[in-house]
Amino acid sequence: MPFSFLEILVIVIIGILVIGPKNLPGTIKKIMLWYRHIKGSMTNIQQKIDQTLDNELNDIQNIKQEPEAEIETKITKKAKCAKPKPVCR
């Protein structure tokens, strides 16, 4: 979420008043490190969730396809048995 120029200016002014001009650069650096760490963690978590959901979706699709394959096999067997042969089991 991008910040407007006015919002950044207000944050800098409050930072100078609260933290002081000498400590402000170090504090901003620490905040950015924490922000990057949190953002990286959130990206990692999102990737794991996506991977888990993809695996679950694949499992569901496989479960759905199993009965379809069984039905197709039975139909194929019945079709083969329909041809004139002595005995079909």
SSE diagram, text form:
Blueprint: H1 5-18, H2 24-82
**Average pLDDT reading:** 82
State the helical fraction: over 70%
In terms of per-residue confidence, which ranges show pLDDT below 50 for 5 or more consecutive residues?
none
By secondary-structure content and strand pairing, the structural class works out as: mainly alpha
**Gap between N and C termini, in Å?**
68 Å
Q: What series of H and E elements makes up the topology?
A: HH
List the total number of helices: 2
The main pleated sheet reads as: none
Give the tally of β-strands.
Answer: 0
Strand content: under 5%
Q: Describe the global form.
A: rod-shaped
What is the CA-atom radius of gyration, in angstroms?
32 Å
Brief synopsis:
With 89 residues, the chain is mainly alpha-helical. The protein has helices at residues 5-18, 24-82.
Could you walk me through the main structural features you see in this protein, from its secondary elements to its overall organization?
- The chain is built from two helices and no strands.
- With 89 residues, it is mainly α.
- It has a domain at 21-47.
